[in-house]
């Protein structure tokens, strides 16, 4: 029995030595093992051999100051009128089909009216280099004469005196606008007609 215990201890020591040799073989040598106290050298070596990571520095966007900004939205009376028409349609659906179809129609038309309200808005911005109206923009150097139009002049330029090549950024519910001549020889557009509630302020921003 004593012999068996000695043999067992021998086997355990042999396995422990084999495991230590395997760990030694598979352990990567560190620089601190070869050159004691070389933590800085180890860090530099790591940075040299690890692939570079594509870090993009955070750079704040250049902010261009806006000297004039205006948003033309549909007036409340127009929104109320359209909503009244929608309610008339909802009542017709309710009378013919019942509550559930009427509620679905009411919700759909209300959502559509909200989307339409924001989609029909017209955004006007003037900065140091460009005039932006809706999705179009023009540099200041290509802007010619700018005229603030009266209600009667707006009516005429929309109808009898209209030019089919002109760029129209107008909203039918407003009778105020400016006419902006285009002085770019490469552009066939003769002028821009822009709806605005503050024609004099926009004119002042374009001239500054």
Topology:
Blueprint: H1 2-26, H2 31-34, H3 39-49, E1 66-72, H4 76-97, H5 99-119, E2 122-127, E3 130-133, E4 136-139, E5 143-149, H6 151-158, E6 167-169, E7 177-182, E8 191-195, H7 199-207
Helix pairs in contact: 4-5
Features:
7 helices; alpha+beta; 208 residues; four-stranded antiparallel β-sheet
Describe this structure in words.
It is a single chain. With 208 residues, the chain is of the alpha+beta class. Among the domains are: 67-119; 123-207, no CATH class. 48% of the residues lie in helices and 20% in strands. It contains seven helices and eight strands. The protein has a four-stranded antiparallel sheet, covered by helices on one side. It has a four-stranded mixed sheet with strand order 5-7-8-6. α4 runs antiparallel to α5. The protein starts with a helix and ends with a helix. 9% of the residues are buried. The model is unreliable at 21-28 and 38-61 (pLDDT under 50).
């Amino acid at each position: 029995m004593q012999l068996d215990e000695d043999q067992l201890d021998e086997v355990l020591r042999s396995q422990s030595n084999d495991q230590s040799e395997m760990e030694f073989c598979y352990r990567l040598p560190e620089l601190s093992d070869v050159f004691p106290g070389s933590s800085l050298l180890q860090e530099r070596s790591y940075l040299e051999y690890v692939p570079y990571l594509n870090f993009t520095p955070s750079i704040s966007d250049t902010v261009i100051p806006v000297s004039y900004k205006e948003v033309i939205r549909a007036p409340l009376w127009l929104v109320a009128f359209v909503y009244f028409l929608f309610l008339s349609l909802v009542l017709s659906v309710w009378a013919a089909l019942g509550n559930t179809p009427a509620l679905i129609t009411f919700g759909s038309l209300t959502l559509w009216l909200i989307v339409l309200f924001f989609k029909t808005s017209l955004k006007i911005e003037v900065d140091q280099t460009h005039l932006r109206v809706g999705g179009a923009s023009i540099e200041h150097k290509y802007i010619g004469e700018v005229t603030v139009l009266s209600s009667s002049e707006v009516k005429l330029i929309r109808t009898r005196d209209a030019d089919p090549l002109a760029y129209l950024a107008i909203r039918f519910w407003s009778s105020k606008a400016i006419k902006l001549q285009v002085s770019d020889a490469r552009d066939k557009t003769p002028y821009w007609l822009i709806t605005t509630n503050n024609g004099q302020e926009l004119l002042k921003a374009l001239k500054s």
